[in-house]
Request: fold
Amino acid sequence: MKISVYVFCLFVLFACQSNNIQSAIIEEGKMIGIMADVYILEMHYQKKYGSPTQYEKPLSRALNNLFLSHGTTKSNYEKSFEFYASNHEKFIQMNETVIQRYNTMLLEK
Reply:
């Protein structure tokens, strides 16, 4: 009987942990928008400063402000990025959507 209770508690514990991980993942559509903004910021700093050592701190501040404007954190973005990157096909689709949005933005200018 003790073993059954112990096993049941383990299942409940793991089920709660997986729900917490899933609830921390940014919704796909919102994630695509954040990824697009992050990529643009990174391109701007790379183009302007060239060397990562020169723009590391300003980029970090800019990214923190970006995440705040999207209602998330760097940590949550990184966890979500890893989650989506673990599904290679889905991640490729998301990046293609980011590129399409960027190209559309360039054409509108």
Observations:
- The first helix runs from residue 2 to 24.
